[in-house]
Amino acid sequence: GAGVSQSPRYKVAKRGQDVALRCDPISGHVSLFWYQQALGQGPEFLTYFQNEAQLDKSGLPSDRFFAERPEGSVSTLKIQRTQQEDSAVYLCASSSPGQGTPEAFFGQGTRLTVV
Amino acid sequence: QKEVEQDPGPLSVPEGAIVSLNCTYSNSAFQYFMWYRQYSRKGPELLMYTYSSGNKEDGRFTAQVDKSSKYISLFIRDSQPSDSATYLCAIYNFNKFYFGSGTKLNVKP
What we know:
The complex is a heterodimer. By secondary structure, chain A is an all-beta fold.
């Protein structure tokens, strides 16, 4: 595709509800990142995939957060039993390490509001 | 200590002004330094990146890295209202991007 696509753009969840956020990276991009951006803050790292392998999940804030990329393309970030502090914009980015630069392309994000 | 710290702003300047945006970072081993621009309700987009130290120029934008003081700067010449956005400095290291908190810039016509 032309860019990184995320869906849904907006999600309102009741506290305790499970949510799933989808990311379609740029075709052929090996690396995929998930970031969390709180209001007025910079993005914070959540997790990193190289193809289907989750190589770094050190930024996931709790065991309620789970990410997968089973076929090395589309990725899903799942949040179980959502809490109000989970309200943020969740950004996905993809890149191609073979191009020799660290340039990552970000999607528009999913804005999650937990009420 | 965070890996990268950024002046929070906000910054308001008249059209045509020179804008200076700044960050400091903690680890002298960092090599890739980036500036992203983020419009409201959009994802960050890469403006430019620098490897190691020195300057890099792209049109009205100049990125500067001073490794001796661990200081990153972005200069915008002849600023335009369309430059109004949040600017994020970032460092790339071992498959992670570390972002500053962002400086919100408003260029007044």
